[in-house]
Structure formats: C-alpha cells, structure tokens
Amino acid sequence: MAWSIADVVRMSGVTSRTLRHYDDIGLLPPAGIGSNGHRYYGEAELLRLQQILLMRELGVGLREIQAVLDSQADRVTVLREHQRRLMGERDRLDTLVRTIGRTIAELDDRKDDNGMTTINRPENLFEGFEHSSEMDAEVQERWPEAWEQSRQAVEGMTPETTEQWQREVTAQMIRMAEFMVAGTPADDPAVQAEVEAHYQGVCAFWTPNAEAYKGLGRTYVEEPAYRANFDKIAEGLAEYQREAMNVYADARLA
Hints:
- This protein has 3 domains: 3-72, Multidrug-efflux Transporter Regulator, Chain: A, Domain 2; 81-130; 132-254, Antibiotic binding domain of TipA-like multidrug resistance regulators (Globin-like), CATH 1.10.490.
- The protein is built from 12 helices and 3 strands.
- It has helices spanning 5-12, 16-24, 43-57, 62-70, 75-109, 137-142, 144-155, 159-181, 189-203, 210-222, 224-233, 237-253; strands at residues 3-4, 32-33, 39-41.
- InterPro entries: DNA-bd_dom_put_sf, MerR-type_HTH_dom, MerR_fam, TipA-like_antibiotic-bd, TipAS_dom.
- GO terms for molecular function: DNA binding; DNA-binding transcription factor activity.
- Pfam families: MerR_1, TipAS.
- Residues 2-71 form the HTH merR-type domain.
C-alpha cells in the first residue's frame, strides 16, 4: 500500500515542507513519484520516518540520523535503544510535572502583605527543564559555517555560563509569553525590543541574516523538540515568537 504526502502529514504531524527537505537531503526519499508529481510513501518509508522522529525527539542531528539509518543496524536493537532513552525522557518530564506543581502550590499559598507571591527556593523553578541550543539541523545543512561557529561557541561555555544562559533563555520566553497573553501585537516596540535581545543572544552562537532568522522562527513552530519548550511556557508562544521574529527580520535584517 502507498500513502500520499498528504496522508503522511496527517498521520505523523510532520509538515510537507519537512518531508520534502528530508527527500532533498536523501534522508527519506519517497517510495515513488506519481505521474502527477506527488510523492508516495510505503510501509518501509513510514518505519524509517518513525525512526527519524524518534531520534529527533532525542535531540539527534539529521546527519547523525542518516549515519545510523544507513549503517544497516538491527532495527529492533535500535528501537530498544530509543525506548531506553525515551524512558529517561519520561522520567525528566515527571520531574518537570512535579516542578510546575510545586510552583503552582507556592503561588497559591504564599502571599506577602502586599498580595505578592514569594518563592522559597528560586532554583526549584528550573528543575527538569531542557533547553535546546539556538541551532537547528536545517541550519547545519544550509549554513555549515554558521553551524561550525555555533559549535565552537557552545564548546567554549563552562557549566556556569551554560546554566546562566539557560536561565536567561527561560526568562526571555516568559517575558514574550506575558506580551502574548496581554494581547500585545508582535510589531509593538516593546516586543521588538525583546526580539532584539533574542537576536543578540543568537549572535553569540551564529549571526543569521533575515532569511536564516526567519528560518529559526519557523523551526520553533515546526520542530517538535523546539515547540515543546515553548509550550512548556505558554501554548501558542512558538507562533507568537515566530511572528515577532519575522517582523524584526523584515525591519532590521532585510
């Protein structure tokens, strides 16, 4: 049986743009192309896509994924390794659930005389969070020099600077969520000032032009691992961040 690209999009949640990109780089060619020019996928391709998505969920880059899939490793052995790592991720998410629950309890129960909340141990706010780097596999494919620049910057970070960077990223996402919840337009000067800070943060790793910065915004929305980090803060935040980044790119980077 063969499934159209629309079928695969519906079943997997992967965008057609991503499937075409996977085809372009040889990671997931379709089983065939019909006379109408549409891609069609068979069972083998669906299984391969499942493995790709599993490894993407685990933070593996596209080049590494291709190397694994092309190595002819036993599929069951590979799946067992994915299962082991996903169980570790489940434990991390359980920790995150407890973190959020503890924060809710403190916000509900602890009020000072002015009605403001107080937190006993601020470091507990961040237990269980996992922050992606500001680089996506698409950047590695399309802008290899930027990828290498980012890799060198990350390798130069100490545990202390990494922790500080993670806290700053989280704080920035929270500020953007506050703008979103308040209904502040993406082109509002205050929002754009926050995006400017975001762009400068990205430039510590690589320096995107307008196209690349917009691409990073799309990645926040379309890639599950990135979107999940935004959804931890507020549902819909990834789209709001992308919209604000598009405005900034058109106004400042074009």
